[in-house]
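REQUEST ID: PR-0412
SUBMITTED BY: lab tech R.K.
PRIORITY: routine
TASK: structure prediction, single protein chain
INPUT:
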Amino acid sequence: MATRNLPILLVLLLSATLFYACGKKDIKPLSTTDKVARTWQGNQLKLDIFLNGVNIQSLNSLPLPIPGFDLNTLKALTQPFNIDTLTLEMRKDGTFSIKTRNNPQTNEGQWTLLENDTKLRLVLNNGASVISNPLLPATNTQDVNTFTIKTLDDKNLVLTNSTQQNVTVPNFPLPLSVRVDANLSFKR
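STATUS: complete
OUTPUT:
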């Protein structure tokens, strides 16, 4: 009796194995392009400003007068800034748009992944910088528009950028080194 049921048991066992194997799907992880190419809601912009390598948050006074800026103004620029009215739509074809809730104008551009998908370059079609930098107006826009991808997952995109420039200060013989580190965060 046991040998008579053996072929039936083997057929059932093989059928179950084939059914299981056919039903299992290989799930490929998303590429960096697929992770980036989404609509992102702005969250926060945070700037850190350094004068000759010293974070201005640690200063009680400016070592030199910087035309148009006092220490309180510079420190105010380093406070986290809410950018939740900003929407960044990244498309798989390498284009993007930036919109703000209060402005009907949409800025369009191209995006590119660089350096083994660790950096993201955002170039607006009109040639302007994605973020403007009042402290470093003459900065190369390629530097300002290239961001390091700090975090990229299903819900978060965090981009960082560091830009440095020597600034000539009136009545001072040496240029002042100014570095601005930007940290932009987005949510889905």
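NOTES: The chain has four helices and ten strands.
REVIEWED BY: pending
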